[in-house]
Write a structure and sequence with these properties.
It is found in: Cell membrane; Early endosome; Endoplasmic reticulum membrane; Membrane. This protein has 1047 residues and is an alpha+beta fold. It is 42% helix and 20% strand.
Length: 1047
C-alpha cells in the first residue's frame, strides 16, 4: 500500500505539467516534473498547485495481515494436487463414503498449514526488512534546523542531510557537501554491482551552501524527467532565484543524482533535495518482486496426477457400472438379512472405491510437495539446466585490476623507469629498438596522471600532501582500471596527488609538484568508448588528453603514428589484457572558447541532451596525436574459466549479463574462455547501430544479416559427422542495454515488430552471449525472454550484488554468491555459494544426483500407491461391488505417513515393479494383502539402494518393524473411541496360521523375483565385461615385446 503525499509545484509563468502521477510505477511518464526545493515558492505572489507524489515507503513484501489468508490459499490451491485433494475431501464430507474424510483431510490440512507458516514467516522477514528501511532516521533541513524524521516521511522537495557511510534514503539532487570542491564519493554495489567509488558533483552555484543555515536560504526549482528505471541516465536543470537578480539555470545530469541504495563514502556529509521517492526511485523501479517458483518436476507431478485421476475415475466407473449390473438381480441386491430402505433405493451412489482408493494418494502430494518445498527446493531443476546467466563483476572476476605494461611510441615498458635512465624493450621491428624520447615518456605519464576521474582518500588526516610524501593515499574511482593506470604511472615515477579547487596536482620523477587546472571532463560513454580531459598548465598552455579503445582512438589520430603502437595492442589483446590507447592534442584559446561555449549549451538542453553533447565531443576529439597504449589485467576468480568450459562441455549455454562497459566485459569473456579466439563475434551495440533517427532501420538490417548468416545460410551437414563438425563456426553475440531496449520496445511506427523473435533465434544459435550495460530490470527481461521460449528451457541465474536480484528471482534456479557487494543476492536466491567455481560441482555433481533422485522418487510414489489401490479394485469383484473396504481405516491413514515414507528419505536409485496378491478372506485377507504390500515396496527399495549407510538400515528395517509393532498394538487393544472393533486381535490371529506365513513369504518372493533376476543378470554381465577388458589388456601387453623385436 502506497500513500500519496503532497509536494509543491510552482507554476507561475512557467509551463504547467500535464499530468498528476499515480502511485508507484503506474504514472504516465509524460513531460517533466517540477520540484520546489525546500517547499519554498519563488515568490509569494506566484500561485502554486500542490502536486501529489508517492511517499518514501519501500514495499517488497508479498502479503499483508488482511490478504494473507485468502491470497496464500489461492496460490496453494492453484496447484493441481492441492485442489484435487480438496475436492476429494469435500466429496467425502458430503457423500456417504466407506472411509472417513479425516483420512484425506488431515494430511491436506497439514500440508497447507505448514506451507502457509513457512511462506508467512518468509514474508514477515521481508516486512521486517522493509520496516528497518522505512523507519530509519534521517535528517531534514527545515527552517535552518535539522529535524529528525523517519525515512518513509520524506517528501519530494525536502532537503536531506546524509552523513558518511549512510545510505541515501531516496533519489537526491546533490546540492553541497563538506568538501570545498563540491564533490562526494559513493558506492553503488547494491544497484549495479560495482564496489568502486564513484565521484558525484554538486551544482556549481550551491557548493558554498555547506551549512544548515546556508542551504535553507536556497530558493530554486528543479525541472527533471519523470521517473524511469535507467540507472545511468538523468536529464534535468535547476533554476536558482536571487533577489534583484536574473534567475540562473544550471544543467543536471547523472553526475548530480545520488541514487537510493547507494552509500556515501569518504565525505563527512552532503545536502541533497529529494526528486524521486519510494517506489518511484530508480532502485524500486528496477526491483522485481519475489514470484512463486515452480520446478519442472512439480509440473510433471501435476501431469502424473491427472493421469492418476483418470485411472481412478475409470476404475470407479467400471466398479459402479458392475455394481448396478450385480444389483439388477434381486437375489444379489437384497438378501433377507440386509433389505434396503426406500430412501436407499431412490439414492444413486457412486461406488465408494474411488474415495477410499484416493486416500492412498493423498499423502503422495503431501510427501512430494513437502520434500520439494523443504528439502529439495531449487535442486530439482539443477539437473536439466540449459541456460546459465551470470554476472561479471564480483562473480567471474575478483574486480582487481593490475597494471602490466605500457607502450610509448612503439616501445614496450614493462619494468620501472629510473629517474635518469628509463628501461624499455621492444617486440616490434628493429627500427623501434631502444626507448622513446624523454619528453614523450613524460608526456605519456602525465596523460595517465591527468586523464581519469580518480580521487584520493587520505589514510591520515593531514594538511597537504606535499609535505608528507611518505603518507600513502588510497585511490578511489568508478572504474578499477583507472586506478590501475594511475598506479602504473606512479610505478614509473609520476604520482597523482589529488584534485583541489579544480586544480590537479602531480609529482614528477624529479619530485617536483606540477599543477594543472581541470577545465572540462568529457566522460566515457559506450558509444564513444573513450574519455578526455581539457587542462591548462601553469604557463597557460591548453591540452586535451584522451584515452580509449584502439578502435575509437586510431581513426582520430595521425595515421602514420598507428602502426608502431598497433603491434603491441594486438599482442596484448591476444594475451587477454585490457588495452587502452592514449592520445593528446594542444588547443588554442580560440578553439577552447568555442568548445566551452558548445559544451555549456549542450548541457543546458532538456531534450536530446546526449545527442548534442556527443556531437561536441566528436568535434573536440579529432586530429589528435597518438602517444602510446597500456595493458591492464582484470584478475579472474579462481577456476572460473575451467567452470565455464565444464558447463559448455555439459551442453549448457552461458550468457554474461553485466552493467559494465563493453570493452571490459569483452576482455573478461575472452579471459574466462566464454569467447574463443576462433569465435566470430556479432555485435548489436549503440556503436554499430548508431544514434541517428533511423537507427531502427539499421538495427533491422543487422538482425536480418545475422539471421541469414546463422540460420538461413547454414549448410546442411553432409558426409561424416566429424567432417561437418570441423567445418562448423562458433558465433558469439554482444548486445548492450540501449539496443536491447530497441528490440524489446520498438517504436510505434516501426515496421519491424518481430525484432524480438529474430533476436531470440540469433541468440539461441550462438554458443555464448554477452549483454553489457544492462540495467537490473533488463537482466530479468533477458532471463524471462529465454525462459518463455519454445520448450520452456530451464534457466539458472548467478550473481553477487543487489543488481542481480531481479534476474535471480526470474530464473528457475537462483544462485547467490557471498561476495564483497553485500548479501542481497544471497538472501533472495535459492542457494548461496562462496565462489563461482562451486557452480561446477553444484550443477554437474549434486544437481545431477538430486534430479535423478527426485525423478525416481515421484515414480516410486506412484508405483507404490498404484500397488496400494490395485488389490482394493480387484477385491470389488469378490464382494459384489458393495463398497466394502479391503483395508482398515488406520492402515489407510498410516500407509504413506509411517509405513512407507521414511525409507524414501534415504533413497538412492530408481524403482519400478508390480505388485501381486492372492485372495484369502475378509479383514484377515485385507491385512495379509496390506502386509505383503508394505514388505514388497520396502524391500524393492532396499534392492535398488546402491549406497548403504546406517540411516538406510535404520529407516528401512525400522519401518518394517514399526508396521509389525503398530499392527499388534492397534489390534491388541479395545479402543473406546471406535464404534467398531473390527481389527481386534486380527493381526495376531493371522500370524498363528502356517498357511498365512507361507502365503506372505511366497507372494513377496514372487513380486521381487523379476527384480532379483535382473540384478543377477546385470552383475554377471558386468563381471564378464571386466574379464574381457582384462584379457584384452594382457594380450596387448604380451604382444609389445614381439612388436619391438620385429622393428
Amino acid at each position: 500500500m502506497v500513500v500519496l503525499i503532497d509536494g509543491l509545484l510552482k507554476f507561475g509563468q512557467r509551463k504547467k505539467i500535464g499530468i498528476i502521477p499515480d502511485c508507484a510505477g503506474e504514472e504516465k511518464r509524460v513531460g517533466t516534473r517540477t520540484v520546489v526545493v525546500g517547499h519554498r515558492p519563488v515568490s509569494e505572489a506566484d500561485a502554486y498547485v500542490a502536486q501529489k507524489f508517492c511517499d518514501n515507503r519501500i514495499v517488497s513484501s508479498k502479503y499483508t495481515v488482511w490478504n494473507f489468508l485468502p491470497k496464500n490459499l489461492f496460490e496453494q490451491f492453484r496447484r493441481i494436487a492441492n485442489f484435487y485433494f480438496l475436492i476429494i475431501f469435500l466429496v467425502q464430507v458430503i457423500v456417504d463414503t466407506p472411509t472417513s474424510p479425516v483420512t484425506s483431510g488431515l494430511p491436506l490440512f497439514f500440508v497447507i498449514t505448514v506451507t502457509a507458516i513457512k511462506q508467512g514467516y518468509e514474508d514477515w522477514l521481508r516486512h521486517r526488512a522493509d520496516n528497518e528501511v522505512n523507519k530509519s532516521n534521517v535528517f531534514i533541513i527545515e527552517n535552518a534546523k535539522q529535524v529528525q524524521k523517519e525515512s518513509e516521511k520524506i517528501k519530494v522537495g525536502d532537503i536531506v542531510e546524509v552523513k558518511a557511510d549512510e545510505t541515501f534514503p531516496c533519489d537526491l539532487i546533490f546540492l553541497a557537501s563538506s568538501s570545498t570542491d563540491g564533490t562526494c564519493y559513493v558506492t553503488t554495489a547494491s544497484l549495479d554491482g560495482e564496489s568502486n567509488f564513484k565521484t558525484h558533483y554538486a551544482v556549481r552555484d550551491t557548493t558554498v551552501l555547506c551549512t544548515d543555515e546556508a542551504i535553507d536560504s536556497l530558493t530554486a526549482t528543479i525541472e527533471c524527467e519523470q521517473p524511469q528505471p535507467d540507472l545511468y541516465k538523468f536529464v534535468g536543470r535547476i533554476i536558482m532565484y536571487r533577489s534583484n537578480q536574473e534567475p540562473v539555470a544550471r544543467s543536471l545530469g547523472p553526475e548530480n543524482l545520488l541514487l537510493k541504495g547507494a552509500t556515501l563514502k569518504n565525505t563527512k556529509k552532503i545536502y541533497g533535495v529529494a526528486v524521486y521517492t519510494g517506489m518511484e526511485t530508480k532502485m524500486a523501479l528496477n526491483y522485481q518482486g519475489k514470484s512463486q517458483k515452480r520446478s519442472a518436476v512439480e509440473k510433471s507431478i501435476n501431469a502424473f496426477l491427472i493421469v492418476y485421476l483418470c485411472i481412478l475415475l475409470s476404475k470407479a466407473t467400471v466398479c459402479t457400472t458392475l455394481k448396478y449390473v450385480w444389483q439388477s438381480n434381486p437375489f444379489n441386491d437384497e438378501p433377507w438379512y440386509n433389505e434396503k430402505t426406500k430412501k436407499e433405493r431412490e439414492t444413486f451412489k457412486v461406488n465408494g472405491f474411488v474415495f477410499h482408493s484416493v486416500c492412498s494418494s493423498v499423502i503422495l502430494s503431501y510427501i512430494c510437495k513437502w520434500q520439494g518445498d523443504f528439502l529439495h527446493q531449487g535442486k530439482v531443476d539443477f539437473g536439466p539446466v540449459e541456460f546459465v546467466f551470470t554476472d561479471k563483476t564480483g562473480t567471474l572476476t575478483e574486480n582487481s585490476m593490475e597494471f602490466i605494461e605500457c607502450c610509448i611510441d612503439g616501445h614496450k615498458y614493462k619494468d620501472c623507469i629510473s629517474e635518469v635512465d628509463g628501461y624499455s624493450q621492444t617486440d616490434g621491428p628493429l627500427k623501434y629498438y631502444g626507448k622513446a624520447e624523454k619528453s614523450r615518456e613524460e608526456l605519456f605519464l602525465r596523460a595517465l596522471c591527468l586523464c581519469h576521474t580518480v580521487r584520493i582518500k587520505q589514510a591520515d588526516q593531514v594538511d597537504g600532501l606535499i609535505g608528507h610524501p611518505e603518507c600513502k593515499n588510497t585511490y578511489i574511482s568508478s572504474s578499477p582500471d583507472e586506478i590501475a593506470l594511475v598506479k602504473g604511472a606512479e610505478k614509473y615515477g609520476f604520482t597523482f596527488l589529488g584534485l583541489e579547487n579544480d586544480f590537479m596536482k602531480i609529482r614528477n620523477q624529479k619530485n617536483e609538484t606540477e599543477m594543472y587546472q581541470l577545465l572540462h571532463t568529457l566522460n566515457f560513454d559506450p558509444v564513444r568508448r573513450r574519455m578526455s580531459v581539457i587542462v591548462r598548465t601553469t604557463s597557460g598552455t591548453l591540452l586535451l588528453f584522451c584515452k580509449g579503445a584502439d578502435s575509437s582512438i586510431f581513426p582520430r589520430v595521425q595515421q602514420e603514428e598507428i602502426q608502431q603502437t598497433k603491434v603491441h595492442v594486438d599482442r596484448n589483446a591476444m594475451d587477454g589484457y585490457r588495452t587502452l590507447c592514449v592520445a593528446f592534442k594542444e588547443l588554442t584559446q580560440k578553439e577552447y572558447d568555442r568548445i566551452d561555449r558548445q559544451l555549456n549549451e549542450a548541457k543546458m538542453a532538456l531534450q536530446d541532451r546526449e545527442e548534442k553533447m556527443a556531437k561536441v565531443f566528436e568535434d573536440t576529439e579529432a586530429d589528435m596525436h597518438l602517444i602510446g597504449a597500456t595493458a591492464v589485467e582484470d584478475r579472474l576468480q579462481e577456476q572460473s574459466a575451467e567452470t565455464i568450459e565444464a558447463l559448455h562441455a555439459a551442453g549448457m549455454k552461458v550468457w554474461v549479463l553485466t552493467g559494465d562497459k563493453m570493452e571490459t566485459a569483452k576482455s573478461t569473456c575472452y579471459a574466462c574462455r566464454l569467447f574463443q579466439t576462433s569465435t566470430e563475434l556479432l555485435e548489436l551495440t549503440a556503436r554499430v547501430v548508431g544514434e541517428s533517427e533511423r537507427k531502427e532501420d539499421r538495427l533491422h538490417e543487422l538482425l536480418m544479416d545475422y539471421h541469414k548468416r546463422l540460420i538461413q545460410d547454414v549448410p546442411k551437414p553432409r558426409g561424416s559427422l566429424k567432417r561437418s563438425w570441423t567445418l562448423s563456426q562458433d558465433y558469439g553475440l554482444i548486445i548492450d542495454g540501449s539496443t536491447l531496449s530497441l528490440i524489446l520496445n520498438p517504436s510505434q511506427d516501426s515496421s519491424s515488430s518481430h525484432y524480438k523473435n529474430i533476436f531470440l533465434q540469433i541468440c539461441l544459435k550462438c554458443t555464448a552471449v554477452l549483454c553489457c550495460r544492462m540495467a537490473p530490470l533488463q537482466k530479468a527481461q533477458i532471463v524471462r525472454m529465454v525462459k518463455n521460449t519454445k520448450g520452456s528451457p530451464i534457466t539458472l541465474s548467478v550473481g553477487d550484488g543487489a543488481n542481480d536480484v531481479s534476474m535471480i528471482l526470474e530464473a528457475h534456479v537462483g544462485i547467490g554468491i557471498k561476495g564483497k557487494e553485500g548479501r542481497q543476492a544471497a538472501r533472495n536466491s535459492d542457494y548461496a555459494v562462496p565462489k563461482f567455481k562451486h557452480l561446477r560441482k553444484l550443477l554437474l555433481a549434486h544437481g545431477h544426483l538430486y534430479y535423478v533422485r527426485i525423478a525416481h522418487l515421484v515414480q516410486y510414489f506412484f508405483y507404490k500407491n498404484l500397488c496400494f489401490i490395485l488389490p482394493q479394485f480387484l477385491y470389488q469383484f469378490f464382494c459384489g461391488f458393495s463398497q466394502q473396504p479391503l483395508y482398515d481405516a488406520a492402515y489407510l491413514t498410516m500407509y504413506n505417513i509411517c509405513f512407507t515414507s521414511l525409507p524414501i528419505l534415504a533413497y538412492r536409485a530408481h524403482v519400478t515393479t508390480r505388485c501381486v496378491f492372492q485372495v484369502f478372506g475378509n479383514w484377515t485377507f485385507g491385512t495379509i494383502v496390506f502386509t505383503v504390500l508394505v514388505f514388497t515396496v520396502t524391500l524393492k527399495l532396499a534392492l535398488d539402494t546402491r549406497f548403504w549407510t546406517w540411516m538406510n538400515h535404520f529407516v528401512i528395517w525400522g519401518s518394517l518393524a514399526f508396521y509389525v509393532f503398530f499392527s499388534f498394538f492397534w489390534g491388541g487393544v479395545i479402543w473406546p473411541f471406535l464404534k467398531q472393533q473390527r481389527m481386534y486381535f486380527v493381526f495376531a490371529h493371522m500370524l498363528t496360521s502356517v498357511s498365512t506365513w507361507l502365503a506372505i513369504i511366497l507372494l513377496i518372493f514372487i513380486s521381487l523375483f523379476p527384480e532379483i533376476l535382473l540384478i543377477v543378470l546385470k552383475s554377471i554381465k558386468e563381471r564378464s565385461h571386466q574379464v574381457r577388458n582384462k584379457m584384452k589388456y594382457c594380450t596387448v601387453f604380451l604382444q609389445r615385446p614381439l612388436l619391438l623385436s620385429t622393428r
